[in-house]
Every structure is written in C-alpha cells, then in structure tokens.
Specification:
It contains 4 helices and 44 strands. It is mainly beta. It is elongated, with a radius of gyration of 34 Å.
C-alpha cells in the first residue's frame, strides 16, 4: 500500500494498493494504476492481472502504444495475453494529446476494439470514424494497422475532377502477398465514362524483380468502346547452368494501350504517358571479361493523331550486337562494336524501303594524362552495309560505306591561389583544343533509319560526329577551341564560379546532312558561352548562350536560377529562348512550407517527410505547397501548370492538386 510497485522482466506496474497472490500469480490493483508493458502504457482506476500469462482486465483505462503513438480510453480493457487485448466501448487515435481542453482531429469510436500486436492489427466492431468532431463514416466492421509495417487493407481514396472524365473516385486496396510481393487493386469510377479496374503487381527475388501495371474499362461511354492498358517491367539474371557461359541478363519492357486516344484520356493510368511512342522491348545480354553480346527485339506502338500525324520509329526485329573493349592495355584503349539490325517500318509514313544493316565500328586511342593536362590521339573506322527489300531511286538494292575518322584532343590545366571579395580560392585556367578529320562520302542515297542531329551544346561541340545513330557520318575538317576557368574552394573543392567559352572552325564546309537538311559553309560556328555561379550554397545560377557572330544576335539563350534557403524550401526560375524556332518561355517551380511565410521558420518544418508523417506527431498543422508553371511568351499562354497543397497535421495528411495539361 502507498505508491506500490511490482516489477518483472519487460513490465512495471504501479498502484495505490497491490495485492499479489504468489500461489496463483494473480495481482489485483486499486487506485492510480499504471502499467508499462514493453513500452505500451496503460492507466486505470482498478484491475486484475495474471502476471505470467498477462491475462486479466482494467476498468476505465486509458492506453498508448509505443510503435505508432496510438492511444485512447475505454470503459474496460481485457488482456488476453502479452500481444492481445479487447477494448470495450472505447476509442482510438494517433493524434498526440495536447494540454488543456483538447480534441483530436480524428478519432475512431467503437463498441469493441480487438488489439492484436502479434499480427500488428486492430479490429473494430460497431465503429464510427469522426473527423473534426463530425461523424463521417459508420463502420460496422473494419481493421487497421497498429504501425507502419506493410499489411493488406484499403488505402485512402483519391477524388478527382477534370473537364473530360468528370468526377473521378478511386479507392485502392493494398494486398501484402508476401515480404517480396505485393499488389494494389484500384476500382475507379469516372462519372462520364464508367467503371475502370486498375491493378499493380510488384515482385522481387534474389535474381530478378519486376512490376506489372494494367487497367481495363469496359465500354467507355465517351468513346463507345472498351479501353485497356498494360505496362510490364522485368529485369533479372538467368542461370544457364553452363559454367563456360555463366548467367544471362534478361530485360522486358512492354507498353501497350487499346487505342490512339489513350494517351490524352488516361494520362495518369499505369505509367505516365508523356509521349505518343510506346516501346515494347525484350533483350537478352551476356558479358564476360572484355566481351559482351546482346539480342534485342523492339517494336513501337505509335499513337497517331489524324490532325497531327508523326512518323513512327523503325522496329528492330531483331537487333544483335557484340562488343570487345580493352582499356589501358600498355597505355592504349581499344574497342570494336558489331551490330546487325533488321529495320521494319510502315512505308505509308517512312516513304523508304526496309533494310537489314550490318555495322562495324572500331577505334584505338592512346591517352596521355598528367595532373597538368591531357593529350589523346584517336583513330576510328565506321563501316556499314545495307540490304534493302526494294530498290532505291538509283535502282540499287544494296549499299555500303567505309569511313575513317582521326582526331587529336588535348588540354592544359593551370592553377593558382586567388582571392575575390575576401574569399580564398583555387583558380584554374583550362584551355582545350581538338582537331577532327573525316573524309566526305556521298550518303544522300542511303535511307535514314536511326540517325538524328545532336543538339548543339557544350557536350556535343566536342563530339567527332554531329549525328546520333549510324546512318550518317558527318564529313569533318575542323578544329574546336575552348577555354574554361573555375574558382574552387581550396578545402572542399566545391566549385563556386565557372566561366566557359567554345567555338568551332571548319576548314571545309559540311556536305553530309539529314534528308531535307542544308549543308554548311566553311568558317566559324556559333560561339557557346556558359557561366555557373554557386557563391552561396543557398543560391545557384546557370546560363548558356549560343551567339551567332555573323548576325550578332543570340541563337539560343537559357538562364536558370535556384534558391534553396533550407529543407523543403526551393524556388527555381528558368528562361529559355530559341530564336530560330520562335520559342520563348519562362518556367517557375517551387516547394515551400506556407507556414513559414506568415509565422516565420519553425523547427518542425525541417524534419524529413517520413518523420513528419509518422504517428504521434503534433496536430498543430503545417501547410506546404509545390508547383510548376511553364508559360510561353511567344504564344502568350500557359503550356502546362501544376499547383499542389498539403496540410500535414501530424496524425493525418490531406493533399489537393490542380493540373493543366
């Protein structure tokens, strides 16, 4: 009697009065009862427990669980063992209890709550869910998790509204099949379209993993037909059982939809459809030492629009590749690539024959590298052979081409200690010079299957070939010169300032172009100017300017500034202009805690999202926002925009997003 205490491993019990019968192991508690069972805490007016089995009852108890901070009170709680209990006429919430007259944002009231800590599950009967003091959902029977561990059950619904599908309600069900497998089944109702069934299945084994997303809508009322989609990702290794061969890498990427309008009607179903070209790709790869082989089949689904048709890429059915490469073999680097591809396309769009193409690309280089610079002579050989399924304009059914390329690439790095605006730096001066020669071969009669023009930037200005792919090899007799200077922190090496300039000079004009392209004359190219500023870790500034010295005007301008003063606080602004395309736009993006705007910085805003969303957080409430706005100055309209708000109350989170595509 008098602040009595009883202890045993994993449990501490206190009360005004405790009677313990050692023959039966039963303890009776009376007055200010407090029990701590492995971190779970119970308070009551009186109770009785069989200590060994932890079986008994408490009257008028309150309780709190350690794992998720869930707590409540009841008329009675019956203990059925260390991991099981039944709460009678009680309630449950994860909102942290506040001082004074406090009411949780949400609370579950039930006639009966069965708590199963072993299964990590709570089951309620005769329950009502209250939000902000208002009963919103009667639940005759339901279950809910007691921690953040994965378990099967219904997830929060998503309600949407758009100008095509109308009101949209999706209620996902999560199925925890096994520790390495799960599925999410989502019934969806679109008021103007009908019912849509969506599903996602994920799996992971020791040697493979993958994901399957599918959806099916019977009889879309707006399109008067069935709609479906299938997206499959699989990556893994296959053991051949032959020691000399070893394992094979297998990859599968399938993207199929029911019709050409799917990308505009269901842009958030399955995978994000940001393109009208859907790749269906299967590949097997093998590598051992310096050798690698692969076999691939690629078929495209092109979602055509009558008002704006596009030329589909060629299917590769199949593509066989091999590579041998060796680095730093007595100072030399070697590589040889072999490729055989069967190109098949829709002639109604391509307007050229299909072909089988064989390719050999070999190169040898001898890099000389020192702390003060580098010099790399390189020789390449590019050989291709074509067999066409119909004659070209000159009557030929085959074609071949062999082209060598020689290049010399070198640069120096000068360093010195410097000081600017009171800060010490290590300043560099890095000149670079590169010469490339590729003789001219007439390639105008060879169809184009996979070549495209590289974008002109600081990376591609140093490339030996101006074209991606293998159907065009540019004729080059040019030199590229560049100069870069950097200010580096002498302790950390972090770059504070970067200034760069680069330009090409052609000794002879470029004659090899893509179909419909225009040859270029000898002389100077546009000048590339670039600058980067990271003087303060909170600020960053990047700009690239492509300047035409003949017209004395910029061809392309990109300016990007970013401000990140703290966690979850980022503001970015980008300006882009391409004079040749008459394109000019501004892009603004941000992520920001709104509470900081009107109440100043608060410590809880700097926590990671997982910590903020965890159970037991304060329900004082924090507002966050995220958004992006892309505005075309030339068209005077918004190209796309997204604006999202999140309210994080700690024990619940609500989000709303508005999007224009």
């Amino acid at each position: 009697e008098g602040n009595a205490e009883l202890r045993r491993p994993g449990m501490t019990a206190r009360g005004d009065r405790i009677v313990h019968d050692q023959t039966t192991g039963v303890a009776t508690f009376d007055g200010h009862v407090q029990v701590n069972q492995e971190g779970d805490r119970y308070s009551a007016t009186e109770g009785r427990l069989q200590m060994d089995a932890f079986e008994g009852f408490f009257l008028r108890p309150s309780y709190q669980f350690l794992d998720n901070g869930g707590h409540g009170q009841a008329e009675r709680i019956d203990f059925l063992g260390p991991d099981r209990a039944t709460v009678l006429h009680g309630d449950y919430t994860t909102c942290r209890r506040e001082d004074g007259d406090w009411r949780p944002d949400w609370i579950l009231r039930a006639d009966r709550l069965d708590i199963d800590r072993e299964e990590d599950e709570g089951r309620a009967q005769g329950a009502v869910l209250e939000f902000k003091g208002v009963p919103i959902l009667p639940l005759p029977s339901m279950s809910f998790p007691l921690s953040e561990r994965r378990r099967s059950g219904w997830l929060p619904p998503t309600i949407g509204l758009d100008n095509k599908s109308g009101l949209d309600l999706a209620v996902p069900y999560y199925w925890n099949i096994a520790p390495n497998r799960d599925a999410t089944l989502t019934p969806q109702v679109m008021l103007r379209r009908g019912f849509n069934a969506m599903g996602e299945f994920r799996y992971m084994e020791s040697n493979y993993k993958g994901r399957v997303d599918a959806s099916y809508m019977p009889n879309d009322r707006l399109r008067d037909r069935d709609r479906w989609s299938l997206f499959v990702r699989h990556d893994g290794t296959l053991d051949t059982g032959v020691q000399a061969i070893g394992p094979l890498n297998v990859g599968l990427n399938l993207n199929r939809v029911s019709d050409n309008d799917y990308w505009r009607d269901f842009n958030r179903t399955g995978q994000a459809l940001t393109t009208r070209l859907l790749a269906n790709d299967a590949a097997v790869r093998w590598s051992s030492g310096d050798f690698s082989l692969s076999a691939r089949a690629l078929k495209w689904q092109t979602l055509q629009d009558v008002a704006a048709p596009i030329v589909p890429p060629y299917d590769r059915m199949p593509q066989l590749t091999g590579r041998w490469a060796r680095v730093n073999d007595n100072g030399f680097d070697y590589s040889m690539d072999l490729d055989y591809t069967r190109f098949r396309g829709d002639r109604a769009y391509t307007l050229q024959p299909n072909a089988d193409r064989g390719l050999l690309q070999a190169q040898i280089s001898r890099p000389f590298t020192r702390p003060w610079g580098f010099f790399t002579p390189k020789a390449q050989l590019h050989a291709t052979s074509y067999q066409f399924d119909s004659a070209l304009a000159n009557g030929a059914t085959s074609a071949s081409r062999v082209l060598p390329t020689f290049s010399l690439d070198g640069g120096l790095v000068f360093e010195r200690d410097a000081s600017y605006l009171g800060r010490a730096f290590r300043q560099t001066l890095e000149p670079r010079l590169m010469y490339v020669y590729t003789p001219y071969r007439d390639q105008s009669l060879i169809p184009n299957y996979d070549s495209g023009l590289y974008d002109f930037n600081f990376a591609t200005i140093w490339a030996e070939n101006s074209f991606a792919g293998h159907d065009r090899v540019v004729d080059n007799n040019l030199v590229t010169a560049g100069l870069t200077t950097r200010l580096l922190d002498p302790e950390s090496g972090v770059e504070a300032v970067r200034l760069a300039v680069a330009q090409r000079y052609r000794f002879s004009g470029q004659q090899v172009v893509l179909p419909g392209g225009t040859p270029t004359s000898p002389g100077w190219s546009d000048i590339m100017l670039g600058a980067g500023l990271n003087w303060d870790p909170r600020w960053s500034f990047e700009t690239v300017l492509q300047y035409n010295p003949d017209t004395r005007r910029s061809t392309r301008t990109t300016v990007h500034a970013r401000w990140s003063p703290g966690p979850f606080r980022t503001l970015g602004v980008a300006y882009r202009r391409e004079r040749d395309l008459n394109s000019e736009s501004i892009d603004v993006g941000w992520q920001w805690p709104l509470n900081a705007l009107w109440s100043g910085s608060r410590p809880e805003l700097d926590r990671a999202p997982a910590a903020r969303a965890g159970g037991g957080s304060s329900c004082s409430g924090q507002w966050y926002s995220v958004g992006r706005l892309n505005y075309s100055l030339s068209d005077r309209k918004v190209v796309d925009a997204v604006l999202g708000f999140e309210y994080d109350a700690g024990c619940w989170i609500g989000r709303i997003v508005l999007e224009q595509l």
